[in-house]
Design brief:
The structure holds two protein chains of two kinds. By secondary structure, chain A is mainly α. Helices cover 48% and strands 11% of the residues of chain A. In chain A, the strands form three sheets. Chain A has a three-stranded antiparallel β-sheet with strand order 1-2-3. A three-stranded antiparallel β-sheet of chain A has the order 6-7-8. In chain A, strands 4-5 form a two-stranded antiparallel sheet. By secondary structure, chain B is α+β, with helices and mostly antiparallel strands. Chain B has a single domain, classed as 2-Layer Sandwich (Beta Polymerase, domain 2). Chain B is built from three helices and eleven strands. The longest helix of chain B is centred in the last third of the chain and has 12 residues. The two termini of chain B are 32 Å apart. The interface between A and B is large, with 54 and 49 residues.
Chain lengths: 417, 218
């Protein structure tokens, strides 16, 4: 009889389940994986080095492009680090807006993850459902910042502008008559907050729809239960954070443990898994959708009742009011200095982390007192997750690699930086 | 907290000022013993390595702007030193700082006691090897590969010290301050030889905003 030895197989980078540009070199024993070696860096753009040659504010846009499905959370860590260096106190309203958009971002991220993960494993329809709700939240991004994805909305000292009082509407076209238009615009008559309030009230039913498709689905369970088990101690040892760590049963969430902004004033729970397999991580993320929905609701209520500034009043950091610039010499000078030179931060080093949808997203800045960071290091949550792929995939079948890549919620923008 | 470090760590260390969290500066010979204590001692329990990164301190504090006091003869002037944003292909700069040029920064997190610490090890330009901490925290594997790839810092006893982020066959360590921002080579498909070729980069380096360090006004 002929004897078969281990053989090497290439997976990606051009593979729809590789979530972008992952290349895996797999050592296979038949259909069983003996060793997986991820090759990364195909999306390396040198964000950190670019940021070191630009004034602080000009790098906010780069942050969006790191983890390009949780844009505002990345900006958040970056502006928090700058605010820590400058010791700025952000207005209360800006904090609530940031928290609200962090949670919108979390929902956006988890919906994309849910759709793509299910699609990878073979459930096509979830993708269509989850993108339906994503569209609404993308519209919220667009309403505040003008762009659907790369918002550059957060700034050191607050957010760039207050929430709009009118929600943009669909317009009449050749393919939409008035009746359809009315149906599409029914929740867009009021402000952004009204739109979100409507969204928050119907989103739990949407989550039920996703769950109906997956949670008790036989095929879904066969593909995820018992796949990629990580026990709690090992998860900590491997540097896991976010849902990957909580799926293993460690109740660790920076929003609770090291609260930033106004998270300590909001009510929400931290879901954890029990077995640490892919199915548990799915359940954790589904519950996080519900919790995020709750947080958004609380923020909407607060924001409706409390007005105030959304940016600090400090001409050294925040651009001055356009009207003041016409009359005041000082505002004009501040404007000129800010846009030609930026602001200098005091010498020092800070690390600030936020609970991004994928885990702890940290920014480490070393400043030598200049208007540009001396060294910027981005701590991306996906990096240690992907590093553990070998361990998680060993002795699983080839098709389970797709499940494991999916459950890790890999996005190459942040891993390759 | 500082006194606790002094009591527990059986070696000398410095505390770096201007930091948001306790920042210990230790010698590389003590690295493994200090890390072992930080991980296992009951009052530290730093069970997770949040982050590990390299730093190149060779141009720390360098400015591209002469900030003299304005005089009757003129104003402040921009100067164009060789900073990484302005380097062209073939330019080389002599590193100003040979001693303590490189630094490896460890960010540790204790999920049990909920605190953080930052540990820094400085390395000379001629001797930039230090022991790997893979045996203490498994996730150090890729972080150390990254620091090696981007800064050329070597980690002894690392199981598999390969490049990680840069291209196959890449030359140089791109995050060093003497590596040009525009890079050294560019890649294109050459139809005459029908293959992808590497050639010297032809992007003009450009810095839109000079690097300025302003003295704090009293």
């Amino acid at each position: 009889m002929k004897e078969f030895k281990n053989f090497t197989m290439n997976f990606g980078p051009q593979h729809p389940a590789a979530h972008g540009v992952l290349r895996l070199v797999l050592q296979m024993d038949g259909e069983v994986i003996k060793d997986a070696d991820p090759h990364i860096g195909l999306l390396h753009r040198g964000t950190e080095k670019l940021a070191e040659s630009k004034p602080y504010n000009q790098s906010i846009g780069y942050m969006d492009r790191l983890d390009y499905v949780s844009m505002m959370c990345n900006e958040h860590a970056y502006v928090l680090a700058i605010e820590k260096l400058l010791q700025l106190e952000v207005p209360e309203r800006a904090k609530y807006i940031r928290v609200m958009f962090d949670e919108i971002t979390r929902i956006l991220n988890h919906l994309l993850w849910l759709g793509a993960h299910a699609l990878d494993i073979g459930a096509m329809s979830v993708f269509l459902y989850s993108f339906r709700e994503r569209e609404d939240l993308m519209d919220c991004y667009e309403a505040v910042s003008g762009t659907r994805m790369h918002a550059t909305y957060y700034r050191p000292g607050g957010v760039v502008r207050d929430l709009p009082s009118k929600m943009p509407k669909y317009e009449k076209s050749d393919i939409r008559n008035n009746a359809e238009l009315e149906k599409l615009n029914y929740n867009r008559e009021g402000s952004l907050l009204d739109f979100l309030e409507d969204f928050v009230s119907r989103f739990p039913d949407c989550i039920n729809e996703y769950e109906n498709l997956l949670t008790d689905n036989r095929i879904w369970k066969q593909r995820t239960v018992g796949i990629g088990i990580v026990d709690p101690d090992r998860a900590i040892q491997l540097g896991f954070t976010g849902p990957m760590l909580r799926g293993s049963g460690v109740a660790w969430d920076l929003r609770k443990k090291q609260p930033y902004e106004v998270y300590d004033q909001l009510k929400f729970d931290i879901p954890i898994g029990r077995t640490g397999d892919s199915y548990d991580r799915y359940l954790v993320r589904i519950e996080e959708l519900k919790q995020s929905n709750k947080i958004i609701h609380q923020c909407v209520d607060w924001l409706k009742n409390n007005n105030g500034p959304v940016m600090i009043d400090d001409g050294k950091v925040a651009p001055p009011n356009k009207d003041n610039m016409k009359d005041e010499m000082e505002s004009l000078i501040h404007h000129f200095k800010l846009f030609t030179e930026g602001f200098c931060t005091p010498e020092g080093q800070v690390y600030s982390a936020v609970e991004a949808p994928k885990g702890e997203f940290g920014i480490y800045i070393i400043s030598d007192g200049a208007n540009k960071p001396y060294r910027l290091k981005i701590r991306a949550p996906g990096f240690p997750h992907l590093a553990a792929l070998n361990e998680m995939a060993r002795n699983h079948m080839l098709s389970d690699v797709v499940t494991i890549i999916g459950t890790q919620d890999i996005v190459f923008g942040e891993i390759d930086r | 907290m500082i006194s606790l470090y002094e009591k527990k760590l059986k070696c000398s260390f410095d505390i770096e000022e201007n930091s948001d969290i306790s920042t210990l500066r230790i010698k590389k010979d003590n690295l493994l013993s200090v890390m072992f204590i930080l991980k296992n001692d009951n009052q530290f329990l730093f069970d997770q390595l949040s982050d590990l990164c390299g730093v190149d301190y060779s141009t720390f504090g360098a400015s591209e702007w002469q900030t003299n006091k304005p005089t009757t003869t003129g104003y402040n002037r921009g100067i164009t030193p060789k900073s990484h944003g302005r380097l062209k292909f073939g330019d080389s700069v002599e590193s100003q700082k040979k001693e303590d040029r490189f630094c490896v920064v460890y960010h540790l997190l204790s999920t049990k006691l909920n605190h953080r610490v930052r540990v820094k090890v400085y390395l000379d330009e001629d001797d930039h090897t230090l022991p790997s901490v893979v045996d203490i925290w498994a996730c150090a594997d890729w972080y150390e590969r990254e620091a090696f790839d981007l800064f050329g810092i070597l980690f002894s006893d690392h199981p598999d010290l390969r490049r990680i982020l840069t291209d196959y066959g890449f030359i140089g360590h791109p995050f060093r301050k003497d590596f040009p921002l525009v890079g050294n080579t560019q890649v294109r498909y050459d139809p005459s030889v029908k293959k992808v070729i590497h050639e010297p980069v032809d992007i003009e380096p450009r810095v839109l905003v000079p690097r300025v360090i302003r003295e704090k006004e009293e």
